[in-house]
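Practice set, problem 2.
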Amino acid sequence: MLKPVLISFAVIMTAMPAMNAYAATTQELFSEPKDVKEVKNELRHFTPVQLITSIEDNKILSKEVKGKLIRTNYELPPSYTPAHLINNYKNQLNALNTNILFECEQASCGNEDKLVKFIKPLNDISDGSPSLITAYITLPKKQVYVSIYAAGRKRATNLEIDIIEVIEEPLDLVTTDQNYLSQEVSEITVKDNSQKDTKNSADHPMLSRIPGAYIQKYITHGFNQASVLVGDNYKTMELEGKITDIAYILPRTYSEFEIDTNYQHALTKLGFTEVYACLGNSCGDDSKLERKIALLATIGFDENQFYRLYKLDRAEGNVYAMVYVIGFPGQLSAEIRIIEETTLNNNRVGIDLQGLTDEIAKTGHVALDGLLFKYDSDELLPEAYPIVEVVAQYLQTHPKQLFYVVGHSDDQGSQAYNQTLSEKRATAIKTRLIKQFSISAQQVEAKGVGEYSPIANNLDENGQKQNRRVELVIRSDNK
């Protein structure tokens, strides 16, 4: 014998047991069947639902109903057949004088796959014997549509109950503040982040920073070469002059477009004209672009790139300004590269053989003016090569005399770092003397003393420059 399902109708429920929110809403019409193994629920505050009203020649006809949708899916033991379950629910619906819109059982339900795809039950475990009933109930305070679908398999029976309470679409989910419309547009405020600037960095005097930005990377040279993008397919041009290259990290509340437009406006006001521009993917792969022109700002998506090159014509030397903006959801960067075209200042090499000889004879040491290195590096700049040649000439004329090549630094940065850098620079001079001019390795010894022997005040840039030096010091020992 089949077990009774024991489904009851309960329009009014004043004291319900605490269940999940969805399950509680289903109890407003039907009680839960006995022997339920699993329950799934879904609630839509308002939605259109297609209810089956006819199946003819496997063609499903439906009626659209709009309202609050409560879906409940039960998994029951296979001892409850789909037809038996539907008959139990039909019995309860008849007690309410319900209008049955459509019902079917097994073959009269048509193609089961089409039926399942149309109903889309929350748990589709059926493989045969479908039963369906669609009904309409008019209650004192509301109209309700019900769709009940059941199908079975060897290990379980699946029961889907969809209840639609007909309502007007609720359009009170969002309210407006009329006071907002009468207010002026306010900009997003950002805090000052200049305390995060990398050490010994500064904005270029020509351009102030974007509010909230800080300098992540900074390079400056009195004279050097820089590559800039001037055409599609990574076409570049080499420029020479005073280089200032600054990479800023910006608040992510800005957009790439906003930053690009602000620099465009500022440079145009200064008289610059645009030489070349590319946006997004038209700039190419950001990693390849980084390699081609040695970018400092490198993190972001290709589609978020903004690149522009500007030029200012001046009688005293042209000025180029490169602006590169790139970002992704977590970070926004802008790089400003200023190239002030000028010729190499050859007067920086301020030492000759006679002067070096006289100074050594007089004091026993000499500061090698003009020994210029790349920023934060032990690599000599080309304009320093003649100084090394003068030192080599002196050493060749005094082959029995021993010397220290001593590197010094200012006090910017950590003591350990300054010590290491001064040693590397002294070693670089010794290595060039040996390899290029065949000076005996025993004649010169490289030493670094870091920041411990200043000759000027480290409190200003001029004093720091004097302290960043290499000296040739005569030795009296033969250790």
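Problem 2, part (b): a different protein.
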Amino acid sequence: MSRLRGRQWGLALQFVYDHFYGLANLSFWGYVVVALLFMHVTLIGITLYYHRDQAHHSVELHPALRHFFRLWLWINTGASTQEWVAVHRKHHAFCEREGDPHSPLLFGLKNIVLRGAEFYRAEAAKSETIEKFSQGTPTDWLERNLYRRWSNSGVVLLVIADLLFFGVPGIILLAIQLTTMPLLAAGIINGVGHAKGYRNFDTDDASTNIWPFAVLVAGEELHNNHHAFPSSARFSQRPWEVDLGWLYLKVLSAIGLAKIRRVAPEPELIAASTAPDVDALRAIIVNRMHVLRHYTDRVTLPVLSCELEHLGGNAARLLRRAKRLLSWQPGFMDQASQERLADLIDRHPGLKTVLDFRADLKALWEDAHASNERLLAELRQWCARAEASGIEALQEFSAYLKSFQPLPEPAVA
């Protein structure tokens, strides 16, 4: 009996030895290339299909691409389109507030980075979340009877395929594939992308951009840009920012495999000195994220810089620190940062003045119940106050607001 068992173990070890590298029989670097390729396809599928096509409808992928990515992501992540889209849309609807499925402010950064997939699965298991937030996602036979019904079967197929084609090294490859979404998407983007990094836009959340450190996440690292313009197919907003997902979309659209539906608006300006009208007001509100960024760059920071000039060598360092503090809303800062910002405002009255002007300007589009006539009157009053302030930066910004060109009329089908 013992000899029979020994022989069986011997045959098993011989089989493993003979098929150690699987049917593919790749070299070390071959496995590295395959691992990186599989990770990249998964991340591209998440950003192009799950995120931009299904969650926000900013692009329209060719049906063949949709079916490919749906199958690939089911095999490599075990997730379904309905679940991913529903959880993501709920994140936007309740961002940083009670109900957000994965906010570091609510659950802690460490928990989201290391256990992001657990938070995702917990939310995806709620039928009310799926029912309310998954509208417009596939409900065909494949979704009902395969992807959602047998969610774990995709991962089982992945295990079999990796061991068959890549042998024992396939175990490492499998681990890399299965941690791509939990670590990079659910962990890094949902965690670090709401805690660390820089901000281009004053969004009502704690979203940040972590480019270029996560540039291989296919554009998802430009998270603050995305929260500023959720329905935009392009996430990059600065000349140095690279959105790999957008580059893919440009290529796919050129060959007829994708249709780009929406991108973030860009202000169109004209030389004007007259008071803004209702059409210009509408353009300002549509481009409000650009307006606030322009205000920070051309009013807040220059005014503070002038007040810091007398500090000499320390001015540049203090300005960098102040710029970071001013890019966050106080509610998303820790106590120490809030105290530093309050102290900065107390010591620099010019900064307090321009921040008060900024708050008044922002209140224009936050008043959801005001009529166009009232908002226009308040905007004109704001411009008049800015021009009478004696602060050159505010006077120039008033001219900037007056130069907004009315939005073009929508095309008639």
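Answer key, part (b): The first strand starts at residue 59 and ends at 61. Strands lie at 59-61, 258-260.
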